[in-house]
């Protein structure tokens, strides 16, 4: 699909998408902290980011070099379990790490540790920087303020409204009734409630 714009036109993606995309681009990038010495019993599904059984404090020191740095360590408290240590917000965060053919710390699964960390950094960054914005998105439908939606709402309303004859005040159809009545009708239709009759 090609989009052709004249000199006066400018494509603007929906506001909420461009803002979240901008935040995604600003998020820290993953920086793998590799272990320079050979580690015994390294699981085959972890690479050089695996440091064996080191303490939280040692991990914190190794990760303090840059935001977005990460490593994997074996838990000292629970041997045989693994922890993803990740630097974000000037502190080290530790996540219990699992592998079942894919890597995960929650429900979402990833082919590689790098992908998991990338997604985690973006998520943490957006939650930190856009928490208020996201909560507003869930309350107020921000997309309604985008020109495309506003411009296209009217034709959609006309298609959704029934055609009625003998309207009060000499009006021939719902299109000629007030916008307020049409919006009230549309809201009732989209909320699956009985719409107020425009033909009474």
UniProtKB/TrEMBL annotation:
<dbReference type="Pfam" id="PF00017">
    <property type="entry name" value="SH2"/>
</dbReference>
<dbReference type="InterPro" id="IPR051854">
    <property type="entry name" value="Rho-type_GAP"/>
</dbReference>
<dbReference type="InterPro" id="IPR036860">
    <property type="entry name" value="SH2_dom_sf"/>
</dbReference>
<dbReference type="GO" id="GO:0005096">
    <property type="term" value="F:GTPase activator activity"/>
</dbReference>
<protein>
    <submittedName>
        <fullName>Chimerin 1</fullName>
    </submittedName>
</protein>
<dbReference type="InterPro" id="IPR000980">
    <property type="entry name" value="SH2"/>
</dbReference>
<keyword id="KW-0727">SH2 domain</keyword>
<keyword id="KW-0343">GTPase activation</keyword>
<feature type="domain" description="SH2">
    <location>
        <begin position="49"/>
        <end position="117"/>
    </location>
</feature>
<dbReference type="InterPro" id="IPR035840">
    <property type="entry name" value="Chimaerin_SH2"/>
</dbReference>
């Amino acid at each position: 699909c090609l989009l052709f714009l004249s000199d006066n036109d400018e494509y603007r993606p929906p506001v909420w998408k461009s803002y979240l995309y901008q935040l995604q681009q600003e998020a820290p990038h993953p920086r793998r902290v590799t272990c320079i010495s050979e580690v015994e019993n390294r699981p085959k599904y972890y690479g050089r980011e695996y440091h064996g059984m080191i303490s939280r404090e040692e991990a914190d020191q190794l990760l303090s070099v840059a935001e977005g740095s990460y490593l994997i360590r074996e838990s000292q408290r629970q041997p045989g379990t693994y922890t993803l240590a990740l630097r974000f917000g000037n502190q080290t965060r530790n996540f219990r790490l699992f592998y079942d053919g894919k890597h995960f710390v929650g429900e979402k699964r990833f082919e590689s540790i790098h992908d998991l960390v990338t997604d985690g950094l973006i998520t943490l960054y957006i939650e930190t920087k856009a928490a208020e914005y996201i909560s507003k998105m869930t309350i107020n439908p921000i997309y309604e303020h985008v020109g495309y939606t506003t411009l296209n709402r009217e034709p959609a309303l006309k298609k959704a409204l029934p055609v009625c004859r003998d309207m009060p005040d000499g009006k021939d159809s719902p299109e000629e009734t007030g916008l307020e009545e049409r919006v009230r009708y549309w809201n009732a239709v989209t909320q699956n409630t009985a719409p107020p009759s425009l033909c009474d």
